[in-house]
Amino acid sequence: MRYEAPDSLKSAVSLLAKEKGQAFVLAGGTDLIVKMKGGFLEPDLVVDIKRIKGMHEIKKSASGFRIGAAVSGVALAENAALVKAWPGVVEAANLIGSKQVQGRCTMVGNLCNGSPAADSVPALYAAGAKVAIVGPKGKRTIPVEQVPVSPGRTSLKKGEVIEAILLPAKPARSGDAYLRFIPRTEMDIAVVSAGINLTLDNKGTITAARVALGAVAPT
């Protein structure tokens, strides 16, 4: 196995695109390394993106939030502006694994792992989040729900890397939340989960709603 840690997205994309064998991106590694240790994956190339500028940044603007692909669950929880704007998204991300895992795991990794029971995905779907993708043919942006295509598989093409998650600015009188049903206590995989995002008018009538269920279908 070959390990590379490029300092630019251009280099990362080039490495992934040129690799003839199995290539994987390493952000937090809480899924990838477990699969490698269990013998489920034997990569020919692992590309570590943590040294690339912007991968650890959370940026707020008038259009919303841009969350770098290597931002950990702990970093999400420590960003007061993000927690205030999108508490359901942060809550979902902070249910991934244990406290130790939270220091490493990322929402992009959770998304790209392709598990139908992923905690952060229903919340991101309900929020109307998008992902910024960089690849050999340039950049593109797609809704989060278009990334997973089946268990363990995504729509990303060879050489493509998710650069960031894009959360829109939340309208006034809006709120989001995430809840999962698990058989025991913490660190279980959801039997079913739900992400919801609602907007009310000044009379309290719901004017917009997005609801996403996890662990009940292939995606």
Describe the structure.
Helix content is 24%, strand content 32%. A hairpin with a 2-residue loop joins strand 6 and strand 7. The protein has 219 residues and is of the alpha+beta class. The model has no long low-confidence stretch (mean pLDDT 96). Helix 5 runs antiparallel to helix 8. The protein is globular, with a radius of gyration of 17 Å. It contains eight helices and 13 strands. A five-stranded antiparallel sheet has the order 4-5-10-6-7. Strands 1-3-2 form a three-stranded parallel sheet, with helices on one face. Strands 11-12-13 form a three-stranded antiparallel sheet.
Spell out the key features of this protein.
alpha+beta; 219 residues; single chain; 13 strands; three-stranded parallel β-sheet; five-stranded antiparallel β-sheet
Brief digest:
The chain is α+β, with helices and mostly antiparallel strands. It has eight helices and 13 strands. A five-stranded antiparallel beta sheet has the order 4-5-10-6-7. A three-stranded parallel beta sheet has the order 1-3-2, covered by helices on one side.
